[in-house]
Amino acid sequence: MSSSVEAITVLSSDGDEFKITVSAAKLSKPLNWMLEDVCFSDDCDEVPTIEVNSKTLVKVIEYCEKHAPRANSGASDSDAEELKKWDIEFMKMDVKDILFHILMAANYLHMEGLYDLACQTAADLMKGMTVSQIRKIFHIKNDFSSEEQEQLRRQHPGCSFD
Amino acid sequence: MDGDFPFLPPEIIRNILKRLPVKSLMRFQCVSRGWRILFKTESFISDHLDHSNHQNPCLLVKDFEIEDDPSNMYCLDSEMQVWEFQNPPWLGYLKQGRILGSSNGLLCVKHDASPHFLLVWNPAIREVRVVPETNIGKDGFYNLIEFGFSPIINDYKIVIGYFPFDHADVSTVQVYSLRSGSWKEKKIRLIDTGGVTSPGVTVNGVMFCWGYKYGEDGFENVIVSFDLAVEEFTVTPAPQLHKHSGFAVYEEKLALVSWMIEDSTHSVIDLWVMEEGVGASGEIWSWTKKYSINPYPCFLSPMTIWRNEIVSFSIGKPESAVVFLNPTTKKTWKFAIGKYGFKEWIFNYAESLVPVGGMISSTNFL
Fold first, then answer.
1. Does residue B191 form part of some domain?
2. What region holds the SKP1 component dimerisation domain (chain A) (predicted)?
3. Residue A118: closest CA among chain B residues belongs to which residue?
4. Is A143 at the interface with chain B, CB within 8 A?
5. Predicted local distance difference test score (pLDDT) of residue B76
6. Which A residues, 55 through 94, put their C-beta within 8 Å of a C-beta on chain B?
7. Is residue B273 in some structural domain?
8. B6 and chain A: CB distance < 8 Å anywhere?
9. For B208-221, how does the pLDDT look when each residue is reduced to its tens digit (9 = 90+)?
10. How far, in Å, are A100, B3, B32 from residue B28 at the CA level?
11. Residue B230 maps to a domain
12. pLDDT above 70 covers what percent of chain B?
């Protein structure tokens, strides 16, 4: 990778172009490999595609840019505390609708921090959901027979299949 | 949660589910057959436990018994929320019993009147196992009952040590295995020790407790360790301690919290950590005095170590606050748990799905 490259351009799965700084891209192993492979020379004009849709990629890049300085240099406890607060806000604001997409992207891009954060956010949201809401978001069918439901109800009166 | 939800691969779903409290998982076993089975598989239970132990370590606190006030058990979670710990109805006798040990979400409970009546209880899934009575070893005082887990054999064991009436140098130790569901008796020559006593602690499958060795100047304190996997005892000298001391776990190592009252006004506390491991032979024992806490202007009674801080209650003060002492920063802080100043015990606890192979104690888990 040329030292003169400070940011690279990537394509989302929707075909939109995004800029990501080299230091931020280092948070992801696959992105890092792409940097080394594709943009090895300055005259490289091939734009790599990342299999993540635009709406999700914006958020993933936002997360990377925010976390890059700390990941690359280490940080004090107060920075870590500040970053933790930022993470909570980041997950609160407008990612709920695309949370599962973020999860998939973080998994695919090997971004441990974002993956953990998204898993925890999903778990926290699930605590307040009903059984049928859970089935809906995970695309699960209720496959208990009526006998099994009856048996479970006997074992745990008050348990709900809805 | 609105929006569209792509199909998540099973490993991502598992990673989300392991972060849920047991209460939610109990509810979500009604989602599908697959989920119900998943919550009972050993690997999922172990992932969930690992997350619970590291990300949400709790403290279980019991106030000293006050008449007609049964709600005196509390759970403090890692977000500093205090929950009243619900005693299941059948456990009314907890009033006359006590919790002896806590490991991976399982509690070992003993009725005060009898050493032979023991229970293993997972309060989160409300499952309880009545440990079968044993009539061996009734010819002596029992002075050790410990409960611990060995990751090597993936089993929980209860160890009862007896001090024989006839002062023979052969002691009887009984070991109950949760996996096999049966008792085993071992006659051991406690290497010149007059017996072993609770409370102890289990670290990485090795149980540690106090033993008393007959020395030239009378009794001498030694540390007796019992490997739960191979069921063998070893004895090691204790470091130079203050008048009182108790076992604890610090950074997954065996630790001793040692304290005394100085000038009738202050508490002085040292934290000793066993830095070296235990070898089968040619052991390398190395106690290091890691920290000394600055004299604290109150009588403290340290109970355990939680998130690398020593947890104490203050004796003689009518407040319900528990005192936390950080050995590295030397900072101390207080936090109110329960209603009364005196705490009968404080245990580390992490809720889990670990089954005890018993019956459901209460059907109402919602």
1. no
2. 113-157
3. B16
4. yes
5. 94
6. none
7. yes
8. yes
9. 988 877 667 777 77
10. 19, 22, 8
11. no
12. 79
The answer to whether residue A134 scores a pLDDT higher than 90 is: yes
**A45 domain-assigned:** yes
Residues of A in contact with B363 (CB under 8 A): 155-157
Tokens of A77: 């406890």
CATH number at residue A123: 3.30.710.10
Domain of residue A72: give its range: 7-154
Asked whether residue B326 is domain-assigned, the answer is yes
Residues comprising chain B, all counted: 366
Which of B3, B13, B30 is closest, CB to CB, to A159?
A: B30
A43 at interface of B, judged by CB pairs closer than 8 A: no
Note the ipTM here: 0.90
Nearest residue on chain B to A152, alpha-carbon basis: B30
pLDDT at B364 over 50: no
A144 to chain B, any CB pair closer than 8 A? The answer is: yes
If one compares B66 and B209, the residue with the highest pLDDT of the two is B209
Q: Is B114 exposed, middle or buried (0-12, 13-18, 19+ CB in 10 A)?
A: exposed
Tokens of B315: 């004796």
**Bridge partners of residue B330, in order along the sequence:** none
Tell me the DSSP string of B56-104: --EEEEEEPP-TT----EEEE-TTS-EEEPPPPGGGGGGGGEEEEEEET
Residue range B257-296, pLDDT digits in tens: 999 988 878 889 999 998 875 555 555 668 889 888 878 8
Give the number of residues written for chain A. Answer: 162
Domain that holds residue B278: 241-341
Residues in chain A within 8 Å Cβ distance of B17:
123
Q: Quick check: A148 and B33 CB within 8 A?
A: yes
Nearest CA in chain B to A141: B32
Find out whether B253 and B273 touch, Cβ atoms under 8 Å.
yes
Do A99 and B363 make contact, defined as CB atoms within 8 angstroms? no
**pLDDT tens, position by position, A26-56:** 899 888 887 777 654 555 666 778 889 999 9
Our CA-based measurement puts residue A136 at a distance from the nearest CA of chain B, in whole angstroms, of: 9
Number of domains in chain A: 1
**Quick check: is A162 in a domain?**
no
Contact A156 B17 (CB under 8 A): no
The bridge status of strand B309-315 relative to strand B287-296 is unpaired
Residues of B in contact with A113 (CB under 8 A): none
Q: Pick A138's closest partner by Cβ from B4, B13, B21.
A: B13
Residues of chain A in contact with residue B20, where contact means CB-CB under 8 angstroms, are 123, 126-127
Report how far apart, in Å, the C-alpha atoms of A38 and of each of A3, A10, A22, A35, A110 are: 14, 11, 13, 6, 19
Is residue A95 scored above 60 in pLDDT?
A: no
- pLDDT score recorded for residue A2: 46
Q: How far apart are CA B24 and CA A126, in angstroms?
A: 8
Burial class (CB in 10 A: 0-12, 13-18, 19+), B153: middle
pLDDT given at position B28? 96
Size of interface A-B (CB pairs under 8 A): 97
The number of domains in chain B is 1
